[in-house]
Specification:
heterodimer; A: 109 residues; mainly beta; 6-stranded mixed β-sheet; 5-stranded antiparallel β-sheet; 55% strand; B: 114 residues; 4-stranded antiparallel β-sheet; 0% helix
Chain lengths: 109, 114
């Protein structure tokens, strides 16, 4: 079993929809949870960063961490075609980031 | 403040040649990470370095791969005697001290072995 599981998709939704992206993990020692966005042939860019449990909101993006279920989510409201990308979750207990495989998201105009 | 700079962006090597990938971290960052990404796959950790120190190389293949981060100059990932299976995108990330979990990535070097 991988330490971090993420559905690779693709996930295709119409413009304006609410998108829900998720990762599950097995290591209860993880304390830091990140979401990165990666456009085709580009490096990943940090979107959201959460420490421990709870919610964090930044514009149209909301990150949720449920440590009891070992489950993290990224919600995108009012999705735009420019949100089409691969979204990777990453988590860490110390310095080494453990990555999900990434979910490819397609927003249809 | 320039971001993480990687060069070259694209590198073509014949089987058996050496590949050298360079990474200059963001200003003020002293931690560098190297990752490999195969097509349609996630990022795979290779090595974590601080200046003049390899902290964790558990993700590096035991042979042909090496990495360094000298006191002066960029971090170098070196692949000797490349094989077709080394073809991938190699990403470098850097982070500041004491905030190791926030990593900022370069644009990657796409290595193609022919």
């Amino acid at each position: 079993q991988k330490e971090v599981e993420q559905d690779p998709g693709p996930l295709s939704v119409p413009e304006g929809a609410i998108v829900s992206l998720n990762c599950t993990y097995s290591n209860s020692a993880f304390q830091y949870f990140m979401w990165y966005r990666q456009y085709s042939r580009k490096g990943p860019e940090l979107l959201m960063y959460t420490y421990s449990s709870g919610n964090k909101e930044d514009g149209r993006f909301t990150a949720q961490v449920d440590k009891s279920s070992k489950y993290i989510s990224l919600f995108i409201r009012d999705s735009q075609p420019s949100d089409s990308a691969t979204y990777l979750c990453a988590m860490s207990g110390d310095y080494q980031l453990i990555w999900g495989a990434g979910t490819k998201l397609i927003i249809k105009p | 403040n320039a971001g993480v700079m990687q060069n070259p962006r694209h590198l073509v090597r014949r089987r058996g040649q050496e590949a050298r990938l360079r990474c200059s971290p963001m200003k003020g960052h002293s931690h560098v990470y190297w990752y490999r990404q195969l097509p349609e796959e996630g990022l795979k950790f290779m090595v974590y370095l601080q200046k003049e120190n390899i902290i964790d190389e558990s993700g590096m293949p035991k042979e042909r791969f090496s990495a360094e981060f000298p006191k002066e100059g960029p971090s170098i990932l070196r692949i000797q005697q490349v094989v077709r299976g080394d073809s991938a995108a190699y990403f470098c990330a850097s982070s500041p001290p004491a905030r190791n979990t926030e990593a900022f990535f370069g644009q990657g070097t796409r290595l193609t072995v022919v």
